Amino acid sequence: MRIADHVVDLVGNTPLVKLNSVTKPGSGLVAAKVEYLNPGGSSKDRIAVRMVDAAEKSGALKPGGTIVEPTSGNTGVGLALVAQQRGYKCVFVCPDKVAEDKRNVLKAYGAEVVVCPTAVPPEHPDSYYSVSDRLVREIDGAWKPDQYSNPAGPQSHYETTGPEIWRDTDGKVTHFVAGVGTGGTITGTGRYLKEVSDGKVKVVGVDPEGSVYSGGSGRPYLVEGVGEDFWPAAYDPSIPDEIIAVSDADSFDMTRRLAREEGLLVGGSCGMAVVAALKVAEREGPDSLVVVLLPDGGRGYMSKIFNDEWMSSYGFLRTPLDSHTAEPVV
Ligand code: PMP
């Protein structure tokens, strides 16, 4: 019988699907790796399992301990799944730009959620980094995975995401494109694909305009889960061959097109990564095979990206949801 022992055993082995409608004629093949099909709904399930495994092994996380982490939601869900399986408590710290739907998901899995202001620098005592550090000091048996510096994060992508892409493309992948948040995905997956292909696979990082990876100062942008205002240790800047910056407006417009034209209801960082992947596939031509990683699903963004009023309030709205024409109205 094919019955998994636990939902955590279903993490990974996500499929690749060809993008058909958003691609331009004459471009290379663009294949999306659909990470929302992980049981917790994102690529972060992968790092959660490996970070907890490593902490149990090193003794940093003891039976009955509490996992404390600053997370924009997805890492929290992954950690909450593993915590349920193994009997840990979870306290997550989120910036206030994270959609309320997403925070409620964490609570639904049984975690406690602490909300902090987005518009303060990382060293500020109210920043979500500072607050989580304080909670770790105050809670007995607390362990902070710290996805920004934990080597088990990139390692999980080196051991799973990279080999899956190589296997599922029969080693024909030419480019790997992914958004950069902690940098774990691009670092681990990119390193594996470069090693296995003797450097032939080119790695493209994607960053919201304004973030440090593409030379910005860390000014606010609205795409969630990607971009930073500092350089995390999980990111190895020698891995990407190139970084492409994408605006919030283009990211969100593409996110809506992916739902409407490709049947992929995904998050804003997915639209952002696809904008860059399409650029690469167009530039590299029909012989390229561009794999783009789509980190999460779109259900957590219904009140933002998939809400016309919210989109209009930022001047992002190009095609209303109830428009029956594929042509933009403005
Ligand atoms: N997109 C979303 C929605 C995310 O939550 C994350 C993780 N912060 C990323 C992209 C980026 O992945 P990574 O942290 O591995 O760079």
From TrEMBL:
Its EC number is 4.2.1.22. The keyword Cytoplasm does not apply. It catalyses: L-homocysteine + L-serine = L,L-cystathionine + H2O. Its cofactor is pyridoxal 5'-phosphate. It is an enzyme of class 4 (lyase). GO terms for molecular function: cystathionine beta-synthase activity. One of its GO terms (cellular component) is cytoplasm. The keyword Lyase applies. GO terms for biological process: cysteine biosynthetic process via cystathionine. Keywords: CBS domain, Lyase, Pyridoxal phosphate. Belongs to the cysteine synthase/cystathionine beta-synthase family. This is Cystathionine beta-synthase. It comes from Gordonia rhizosphera NBRC 16068. The lineage of its organism: Bacteria, Bacillati, Actinomycetota, Actinomycetes, Mycobacteriales. The gene is cbs.
